[in-house]
Amino acid sequence: MKVKQMKMSYMERLKKMLENTDGLIFTKDIVAEGIPKSYLSVLVKKGEIERVSQGVYETIDAISDKMYYLQKKKTLLVYSHDTALFLHELSDRDPLTYSVTVPNGYNTKHLKKLGLVVFSVKKEHYDVGLTTMNTPFGRKVVTYNMERTICDMIRSRSKMDVTILTDALKRYFRRKDKNIPRLMEYADIFRVTKLLRNYLEVLL
User: Fold this and answer.
1) Residue 115: Cβ-neighbour burial (10 angstroms; 0-12, 13-18, 19+)
2) Given a cut of 90, is residue 96 above it in pLDDT?
3) What's the CA gap between 140 and 15, in Å, rounded?
4) Which helix (H) or strand (E) holds 189?
5) For the range 142-145, what are the long-range contacts, defined as Cβ-Cβ under 8 Å and sequence gap of 24 or more?
6) Average pLDDT of 143-168?
7) What are the residues whose beta carbons fall under 8 Å from the beta carbon of 127, sequence distance 6 or more?
8) What is the pTM of this model?
9) Are the C-beta atoms of 203 and 173 separated by less than 8 Å?
10) Residue 2: pLDDT band by 50, 70, 90 thresholds?
11) How far, in Å, CA of 67 to CA of 138, rounded?
């Protein structure tokens, strides 16, 4: 009888976690809560959840949020470049592939296999401009702020669609929450000040 009560307790806790995470759960999270992983298998067999990736499960009626669970699995990746522009509403182009930035020394092989466009930066520059934004499904992910993103786009301009950058700059300067001093500060840090001024001379 005690064993049955313990199982019910685990199951109730697991279902409560699913409610609190909008139907998306990670094996590592339930392990951290002391819930045996076997309870995930029980729910899979019952058809209540499904495995969407290694260590990632969703309820059948959950809306899949790939951007969110990718970052939960790979916590050092930061959404950047054109993906960050989209999150900041500086671009209408929903990225078909996500652009991410990681610190130098991070093994990017697995990320590239997942179809991600990966950029590496010096460790001292990795956390410059870090912020959080909501995915289209309302979950928070780590990305770079608008000013850092614009500088990243300029730095990587040979790999990016120039029209996306120019459109983003136009949108940025129409924003009330723009921060020009910060933009110029970051341009100096990432050594794109001259290039940024060239763009601004054309646009403004």
Assistant:
1) exposed
2) no
3) 22
4) helix 180-189
5) 142/71, 142/78, 142/79, 143/78, 143/79, 143/80, 143/83, 143/84, 143/87, 143/88, 144/78, 144/79, 144/80, 144/84, 144/101, 145/88, 145/182
6) 94
7) none
8) 0.80
9) yes
10) very low
11) 11
Check if the beta carbon of residue 126 is closer than 8 Å to that of residue 103. yes
191 vs 194: CA distance, rounded Å: 8
Q: What is the DSSP string of 2-16?
A: HHHHHHHHHHHHHHH
**The pair of three-digit structure tokens given for residue 47, joined into one six-digit string:** 């058809």
The closest alpha carbon to 139, from 196, 53, 63, belongs to 63
Amino acid at 134: N
Return the pLDDT at 25.
87
Token duo for residue 21: 């995470």
- CA–CA dist 140, 149 (Å, integer): 17
Find tokens 């313990």 and name the residue: 6
Half-sphere exposure of 163 (CA within 13 A, CB side): 2
Tokens (6 digits) for 128 = 């410059």
Cβ(67)–Cβ(150) below 8 Å: no
Q: Regarding predicted confidence, which is higher, 78 or 66?
A: 78
For the chain, the average pLDDT equals: 90
* Tokens linked to 117: 């466009």
Amino acid at 91: S
Q: What is the mean pLDDT of residues 75-80?
A: 96
Task: Please name the residue that has the structure tokens 């990017």.
Answer: 108
